[in-house]
Amino acid sequence: METSDQATGAVTMDGVKASVLRKVDELFDEETHFLREMVRRPSLRGETNLVQQFIAKSLRGHGLNVVEEGLDLGKISAMRGYAPVDWSYEGLVNVIGTARAAAPGGRSLILNGHVDVVPIDPIEHWSVDPWGGDVVGNRLYGRGSCDMKGGIAAAVYALRAVQSCGLGLTGEVTIEAVIDEECSGNGTLSAFANGHTADAAIIPEPFPYMVTASTGVIWCRIHIRGRGAHAQSASSAVNPIEKAYVVIKALRELEAELNRPERRHPSFAGVEHPCNVNIGMLHSGTWPSSVPETCTLHVRIGYQPGIAPVEMQERIRQAVLGGAQRDEWLRGTPPHVEFAGFLAEGWLVDTESEIFALVERNHEQLAGAKPSRQPVTGTADNRYFGFAGMPHVGYGPYGELLHAPDEWVDLESVRLVTRVLATTIIDWVGVIS
Amino acid sequence: METSDQATGAVTMDGVKASVLRKVDELFDEETHFLREMVRRPSLRGETNLVQQFIAKSLRGHGLNVVEEGLDLGKISAMRGYAPVDWSYEGLVNVIGTARAAAPGGRSLILNGHVDVVPIDPIEHWSVDPWGGDVVGNRLYGRGSCDMKGGIAAAVYALRAVQSCGLGLTGEVTIEAVIDEECSGNGTLSAFANGHTADAAIIPEPFPYMVTASTGVIWCRIHIRGRGAHAQSASSAVNPIEKAYVVIKALRELEAELNRPERRHPSFAGVEHPCNVNIGMLHSGTWPSSVPETCTLHVRIGYQPGIAPVEMQERIRQAVLGGAQRDEWLRGTPPHVEFAGFLAEGWLVDTESEIFALVERNHEQLAGAKPSRQPVTGTADNRYFGFAGMPHVGYGPYGELLHAPDEWVDLESVRLVTRVLATTIIDWVGVIS
Q: Which residue out of A183, A235, A239, A271 would a mutagenesis test of the B interface target, given it has the greatest number of B Cβ atoms within 10 Å?
């Protein structure tokens, strides 16, 4: 092969890498097309099958051994990190593609990414088609382009570049395209339930740096009851929309408490506001001239590592009910707090692990500068790899406007991450020519 | 006939009334059944045809001349009291049933009622089927039972009782079953556009007293824009749900201003809080982990007679934009205020009119006590009769929980109103045997 040393016939590692990196570039139009085709398949929660079929077909085309696995609540619900949900997984699948080792001696690697994306509303705030995958300059636009189909493309084409050079792997590489990361993590949990493990994992979420730690994330719903009436007697009724603000105030106080510098986990020492409480939804009422009976808040609460999810649930409940005590109506008609979806504890990355060092070093060599190390104020499925005792890395492409209109991913960053992952496969898993 | 004076053969007016009142009682089971059948036909906005077909068929069965008339925006949109809407009237009808005069000499009368009802949400707060029309003791339950199918039943069976006694009318009586009263008033406006007028009108809305005046009512929608983001960076995004509270505060200040005692219209002198601002709907967000981009408020604002709707619209707009000035984000991204639906000015009832005196006196005679006179803090379609220069009355059955779960109407009150309307037909329109 072209990377062999002409004088000796021996293949040098630098030569192998150079060859694979050229292959990444050769395949990059195809990779961009693959990314675009993923973006063009809307994959909101519950609607992930179209993109999963596309990914499964693509991975089979790349010669991987592909299985499509449903999520079995009976299997996962007793496992650590399970998040109770009240939506259905019926008919939905993870796609797991495995490249078998051609020879022994290396280590196995999981490249994990989620295909589910968050809603696009309101569509009129988009200046491009959210499902179009339009490319303008270095940016590829669309819901999920950055979070995280760009990372999936990088993982798939890193492996493809290695294999397209005719190199054999000395360990297994598994591509996991999972669902439900944006709301629970149960997709990756299910992959574990089905026995998929490896010696290390990389999750190329849109973290254009080396993740060191993550906050925990809990979702809760708060149901506030008012006393409905005709608007003509609104002043003697109880409007739950206005009572919701009592609850929001209590949640903001909890947020301030969670962010107090003296409570700061060491991993978040340099972060001004690690714990974000987000009022993601408030819905109340169906008729302007009726005082609503109910108001429902959907809240996402970030909290620092070291607090157990059940403890945090209790603190949330106490904060809401404590706030309610300050309001005469809510004292007698306390809000109902329920939990569904994210029940994720904060996680830490072992920055001393070999896989961490390899990714960091390969990025430095290929980008010309060391990546920064940062904790993240969101979460990712990394925690499940931690539960399994596997070293894991959070590192991926750069983009902006995640969870907002006009989300985009930087294609040069996708290319860079593809190169970093490809060289890391060579280093961690090992190849033979 | 049995009410004739046996000695002379002449029919006394007291005898006629006694006969008609007995007929009301005889027919009351049928009237209750009619009311129940109306309640069992859900007639939310846009879904009124089923009940209208039922009413049309019933009125035809009673020998009335019935027309079903669509609403023609081209006809009504230039008329006083038109409320611009962005919902469709396509395929929807008013039902107008007319009992022709058998002889000349009397005066004509319109009995007007709306068939549209407000939403039932949340259904789980109902202890009965909202569309069941269940009777428990004297109460008939269901959405619209009180507001205002009970009043329609009273109107229909008042006329039916008179006609069932073999009496001929000396003036025309028209039953108008209109749509869109709960959101615009365009149904009654359309009846005027089609030429239906009379010498007086009674609207048996759930006003168990003699209405003297009404507030104006305006609906507006306020669109608040935030800056969406991933919840992980919520603290540096702008959540429009929380900005909505700036707007709500401004609306509450407007409400306080509207209710200031020194601004009180004389008709509302004894009313503590005539002007109700109701935040009927607040909807924002579709995902707990995304900071929403937008928040929409649907607001109903009551205001006193003497203020023109366009002036009130401007005051609402100024209140919202003035409140926005106090917030840094909203100053740069002001809320958008739009108007659709109710654009109703306050109205006064001529308490010196003969029709008013007749209804009041007939109630007193039949109930044994004078009805109270009260202004109402809502509105009703009476204003259109005022625009047409017609004397009009607002008086109808008693019930509770209008626009709320477990709405009910008191059946004895429906019977009383039926009796009052029947005797008022005799007095105002006149009958011959």
A: A235
